[in-house]
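Consider the following input, taken from an annotated entry for Nitrite reductase (NADH) small subunit (Paeniglutamicibacter kerguelensis).
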Amino acid sequence: MSAVVEEVVLESEDGMVSVCRPEDLEPGWGEAAWLGGKQVALFRTEGEDFFAASHHCPTSGAKVMARGILGDQTIDGHRVSTIACPLHKEVYRLDTGACLSASAQPLPVFPLVERQGQLWMAGRP
Ligand code: FES
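Applying the prediction step yields:
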């Protein structure tokens, strides 16, 4: 027997989708979330920055990115937060999704903003 669960997605007038509260995410760690019928990886860095990306590794398609290794690199004089895929360790920028370690496909990323104690994601994954 299976159950059908209806997903309720809160959406603002400007098209932002409610994701979670900032304190729901652990610093230095990622979490996978089911949002709008897609798997999304949410990250909170040790520096208190928040990012959202596809949970699918663009290299293999494996649903693993929320279990990746958070880090950072200096690029053009700026510190940039990164995520390394936990399987083959390709490294992606969390702000743009660009792959830094190979000429691989970029990781789809989604802007996150904090409003009134809630994280909101621009668009749907
Ligand atoms: S599975 Fe992601 S880099 Fe290989």
